[in-house]
C-alpha cells in the first residue's frame, strides 16, 4: 500500500513539474510575441516621428532654398487636403441633418 502512495506522490510531483514547464514555455512564448510587437510599434513610432518632421521642419537644418520651397509646398498641399476634407465632412453632416428632418 505504501508503495502505491509513494508512486502516486511521485506521479503528482512529476505532473506538477510538467505543468510548470508547460506554463513557463507558454510565458516565454508570450514574452517573445510581446517583444516582437514592441519592436513593430517602435518602428511605427520612428516612421511617425519622421513624418512629423515634415510638418515641423527645422529651418536651421535647411541648406538650400529648394529645400525650404519644397517644405513650403508640402505644407500647402497638406493644408489643402485638410481643407477639402473639412468641406466634405461639413457637407456630409449637413446632408445627414437635412435627411433626418
UniProtKB/TrEMBL annotation:
Coiled-coil regions listed: 1-51
Entry's Gene Ontology cellular component terms: nucleus
Top-level taxon: Eukaryota
Keyword line: Coiled coil
UniProt GO molecular function: DNA-binding transcription factor activity
Protein name (database record): K-box domain-containing protein
Pfam families the UniProt entry points to: K-box
K-box domain span: 28-90
Amino acid at each position: 500500500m505504501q508503495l502505491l502512495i509513494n508512486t502516486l506522490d511521485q506521479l503528482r510531483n512529476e505532473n506538477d513539474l510538467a505543468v510548470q514547464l508547460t506554463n513557463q514555455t507558454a510565458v516565454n512564448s508570450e514574452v517573445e510575441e510581446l517583444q516582437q510587437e514592441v519592436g513593430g510599434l517602435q518602428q511605427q513610432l520612428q516612421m511617425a516621428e519622421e513624418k512629423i518632421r515634415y510638418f515641423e521642419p527645422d529651418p536651421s537644418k535647411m541648406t538650400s532654398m529648394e529645400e525650404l520651397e519644397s517644405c513650403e509646398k508640402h505644407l500647402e498641399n497638406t493644408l489643402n487636403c485638410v481643407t477639402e476634407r473639412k468641406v466634405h465632412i461639413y457637407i456630409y453632416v449637413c446632408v445627414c441633418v437635412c435627411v433626418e428632418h
